[in-house]
Amino acid sequence: VSLALEFSRESAAQQMDGSFMLSSLIRLIRTIIIITMALGGVWRRTNRFRIMAKSTGLLSSVGYYGLLSSTMMMMKTTRTMSARAFQILRQRQRPSESLLQQHGSRLFATATSSSSSMEQETTTSNQTSTTNTNTNDMDSAPTTKRLFGYQRIGVERLIEQKRLLLADEMGLGKTVQCIEAINQLAREKKKAAAAAVAASDGQQQQHDERMRILIICPKSVLGVWQSELETWLEHSDDKNDDEPRPQWNTHIAQTGKKKTKKQQQQQAQGTSGLRRTTTHNTVGLAAATSASHILRANKPFLVYGTAWKKERTAEWVNQAVHAGFRFIDTACQPRHYNESGVGEGWWTAAQELDIAREDFYLQTKYTPEGGQDPNNIPYDPESSYEEQVRTSLAVSLKNLKTDYLDALVMHSPLNNMKDTLTVWRVMETFVDDGTVKRLGMSNANYLQFTTLYKEARIKPSVLQNRFHAETQFDTKLRHFCQEHDIWYQSFWTLTANRHALHHNEHIRALSERHDLTPQTMMFAFLLSTGYITPLSGTTSKKHMAEDVAIMERIQGGERFFESEDELRLFSEHLGMPEL
C-alpha cells in the first residue's frame, strides 16, 4: 500500500477496492485484540499479578493460540496487500503525462532555462506523439529490452527534455540510461540522414551522420564509464563494410595538458590520434589533472606501489593508471619488483588514455647487493659502487620506457656511512645532468638519514619507510621531514595497522560517519597531515577507485578532520605517540 500511495496517492486510493481496505482494517484490529489477550500468559508468570492468574488462565491459553494464528494471519494479509500494491505499480509502469507532471518532483529534477516554461506550453501537444515514436524505437532496440521500466522512463525524458538531471540513488543505472539515450539519438540521426538521401532522388550529396558526445567525469570513475560504454553502446550491423568496425570511437582526453605538434596535426586532420579508425561517431571522456599539475599546486597525493606483483605487474599498473593513479613507485630489484612490467603497464595505459610522460611521476630505487636475489642481480656485484649505480639506472630507464626519472631512491643504507655517501655522490651526478629530478632514501633510521642529510650536497627530498608501531611510527623522523620539507612516504601502511583499523571503535565510527572504509579513512588521515604521502599497492579495481576518490576529494578541499585536535585524537587511537 505504501509503495502504491508513494507513487500516486489519488490513483492508488481510487483503484483500491473498498471492501478490501475494510477487511484489512478488521483483520488488523482483530490481531491487536488477540495479541493483547496473549499478554495474559505473561501476567500469570509474575507474582505481582498472581491474583489475576485464575481469572486470566483460560484467557492466556487462548492468547497463546491466538498469537500463533495472528502471526500467520498478518503474514497472509501482508502478502495479499503487497501483491495488490505491486499489481497497481505494474499497471502504472508507464504513467500518463498528467501523473508524471503531478509527481514529477519525486522522479525527475530538470534543469531548464528561464524560458523553458514557455517552451513546454508550446510543445505539450506534441509530447504524446513524440513519446509514442520514442517508445516504438526503444522497443525495437536490443539494449532497451534489458532496461527496467523506470530506466526506460528516464531515457524517454532524456530524449524529450534535452536538459535533465537524473537524481536516482547509486547503483540504479544512471550511466546505462545516459548511454541508451546516446544510442537512440544516434539511431534518429541515422534515420534522418537516410531520409535525406531518399529525398535527394539519388543525387550524390554528403549527409553527415556523425555524432560527438562529451562525457565529463572524475577520473576515479573513468574505468566504470569505459566498461559501460563497451557493454551498452550499439555497434554497426552493416554487412557491406570491407571489415567489421565499431560504430563508436571512444577517445579519452587529459584536461589541462598541452598538445604535442603531432596531436595538433592529427586534430587538424580530424583524427583522434589514439585509435585511427574510420568510425563516424565519437564519445569523449575528459579525465582529471596530471602529476605535474598536482605537484605545482602543492596538493597531497597517493603513490601506487608495485612490489610483489610479479607477472601481473603490467596488468595491475595499467588498471591503476586507468583508475587515476599518476604517481608510481618501483625498484630495480627483480627479487620483489617487476620493473619492466611497471614500464609496460604505465606506457600502455598512457597510449590508451592519450597521456603524456610529463603527466606521470615515476620513482624507482637502486638496491644494494644485500637486498638483491643472488641469482638475478641487474648489475655486476664485483664492480665498483659507481658502476653498480650507473648500470642500475640504465636498466631502470630501459625498463620504465623513459629517458628521465622523477625520483631515484637508495633502497637502503649500505653497511657503513662511508659507502652510503659514496653511492649518494654518484646519484647526485644524475641530478646534475638532468636524468633524475630528485633523490631519496628508504628503510633508514633517524641517525642514518640525518647524517646523510647533513653530508649530502643535494639533499634528499624523499624518505620512504615502514609506518607501524614497532618503529613508533617514525615520530622523530617524521618531524624532521616536516621541518625540512621532505616527503615522508609511508609503506606497509594498511597491513601493519590492520588490527587498529578493524577493531578500534573510534576509527570505525569515524569511518562510518564519513561513509568510508577504515582503510580509506586511514589514507584520508595521512593525506590530511600535509606531509605524509602513503603508498597504495592494492590489486582491486574497487579499492583503486576508492583510493583515488579520497585523494581527489582532499585535493578539492574537502576536510575530514575539522581541527588538529581531531587529527591528534585519530593518531592516538591508531597508536601513534605523537602526531
Account of the protein in words:
Helix 3 runs antiparallel to helix 4, helix 12 (313-323) packs parallel to helix 13 (339-353) and helix 14 crosses helix 15 (417-432). 53% of the residues lie in helices and 9% in strands. The chain has 579 residues and is of the alpha/beta class. The strands form 2 sheets. An 8-stranded parallel barrel has the order 4-5-6-7-8-9-10-11, surrounded by 4 helices. It is flat, with a radius of gyration of 33 Å. The chain has helices at 2-7, 9-15, 18-44, 50-91, 97-107, 116-139, 149-161, 174-199, 222-232, 261-268, 291-296, 313-323, 339-353, 385-399, 417-432, 446-455, 475-483, 498-503, 505-513, 518-528, 541-555, 564-574; strands spanning 211-216, 248-254, 281-287, 303-305, 327-329, 361-366, 407-410, 439-442, 462-466, 487-491, 532-536. The model is unreliable at 1-17, 47-56, 92-140, 238-246, 254-259 and 266-280 (pLDDT under 50). It has 22 helices and 11 strands. It starts with a helix and ends in a 5-residue tail after the last helix.
